Amino acid sequence: MIDLHTHSTASDGTDTPAELINKALSQGITTLALTDHDSIDGWSDAIKAHRSPLSLVLGAEVSTITTDGISVHMLGMLFDGQDLAMKKMLDETRDQRVPRMRKMVELLSADGIKVTMEDVMRAAPVGATVGRPHLADALVELGIIKSRDEAFGELLSNSSKYYVENIAPTPEDAIRTIRKAGGVAVIAHPFASRRGQILNAEIFTPLVEAGLNGIEVNHRDQDASEQQSLDSIARELDLVVTGSSDYHGTGKLNSLGENVTHPAQWERLEAMADKRRVITP
After folding, report:
1. CATH number at residue 150
2. What is the pTM of this model?
3. CA separation for the pair 253, 137 (Å, rounded)
4. What is the mean pLDDT of residues 251-257?
């Protein structure tokens, strides 16, 4: 099984990189990508924990914003972690997450939902990239909401009045940076209507021109018709089709390996990187 989209405590997951590796091994995952939000801080621990028979793919999920204000997540994999432009993009995108979180906390508090930035930071593991799941965890801890999923359904979705946009690169700029760093770029859950506002099909042409390699088609937040539409777009544009869990650990329904990538599609995607960077058994 090939799962190309997971998160650890280096961003907003609940499993450490080592715990994620162990869980993947126990569940029969053969190839696992670690793609924390705007961070590669979990790479070294994942490499230390890696062991046979698992193949480890290192990457990051980059937060981007279209010119008309739609949030897009871009999976960058197999890039050079020492590339200066790539590190700069990740650092700048990650740094803006704290002021963004402060604004969301202010909006919630103004409506009588009593949560503080201190509550959010207590919910985030040390060194984690602060994100909405940590705010959700704080709301759960305070007894305001029952679970992460309920928080995202009622308060923290992209369409919620409490949602605050990231300050981030455009999808095209992120793709170019990932490709120049030797990696491959796959747009994550682009038709995820269950998350709120989605992209339209016209966006893919400029993304392909920028160097997009693939589309995450099989994802739980995209229904069957959305997946079928994305599969057609991928085939029309000759893009790789991926599937993945978007696993975050405890508190979200996503399970490791619940959606996977076909080996032939993964083989094609890996060949598009400038060199082989998979950590093999």
Report:
1. 1.10.150.650
2. 0.83
3. 14
4. 88
